[in-house]
Specification:
Rossmann fold, 2 domains, two-stranded antiparallel ribbon, 18% strand, elongated
């Protein structure tokens, strides 16, 4: 009569251990895939109520300058203002989730008003660029790398110092692309992060909670 409870206890212990093992081996990887797909498996378009126009800024001029990035065409934009003593060119890498570069128009106006050419672009899966989806954080590095190769081939940009300006996903891209382009003169990174895991961990906490007990 005593052996039966011991056997049941053993089964319970094994079941608990199996569940605990399933958390890191199955549940966490599945959750990671769900989070990743929810972020990078779709396109992003700038909301109409957030859109800026070149006409909103006095003297701001824009010219399309598209380029290839792997198998898609990315929408590139050359911004400038007349009667400026040109100091260099600033390449803007936008963040993730709000569409392409359009919402950074106030920064573009500031840079061009202070003697800089600006080259901005919509990364893969954003606004006017090709691609059915963003396709992951590293894709931002690829897009920026191809933008840099495109910029150095533009006649009026040649022999000018190149500066990078990146926000969030763009900041991550800027920080990583510096390893590939040591000739970059300066870089500005706003709300960036060092590794892919940093963003995924943050997004996972937003979806599942931080695990802190309520006060």
């Amino acid at each position: 009569m005593e052996k039966k409870p011991k056997k049941q206890k053993k089964i319970i212990i094994i079941s608990i251990i199996s569940v605990l093992l399933a958390i890191p081996l199955i549940i966490l990887p599945v959750t990671t895939v769900i989070v990743y797909e929810s972020i990078f498996g779709e396109r992003y378009e700038t909301a109409s109520w957030l859109e800026f126009s070149v006409e909103d800024y006095e003297g701001l001029q824009m010219e399309r300058s598209d380029f290839q990035s792997e198998d898609v065409t990315l929408a590139g934009y050359k911004y400038s203002k007349a009667n400026q003593e040109i100091k260099g060119v600033v390449i803007i890498a936008h963040g993730l989730g709000g569409g392409g570069h359009n919402t950074y128009m106030p920064f573009i106006d500031y840079f061009t008003s202070n003697g800089y050419y600006v080259f901005a672009y919509d990364a893969r899966g954003n606004d006017n660029s090709g691609g059915d989806a963003v396709d992951g954080l590293p894709q931002g590095i690829i897009c920026l790398d191809n933008a840099l190769h495109h910029v150095v081939a533009i006649e009026e940009y040649q022999d000018l110092p190149v500066t990078l300006f990146g926000h969030s996903w763009g900041g991550y891209s800027v920080g990583n692309v510096l390893n590939m382009h040591p000739d970059i003169k300066a870089a500005v990174i706003i709300a960036g992060f060092n590794e892919s895991e940093d963003l995924l961990e943050y997004q996972g906490q937003q979806m599942a909670g931080g695990g802190k007990a309520p006060e």
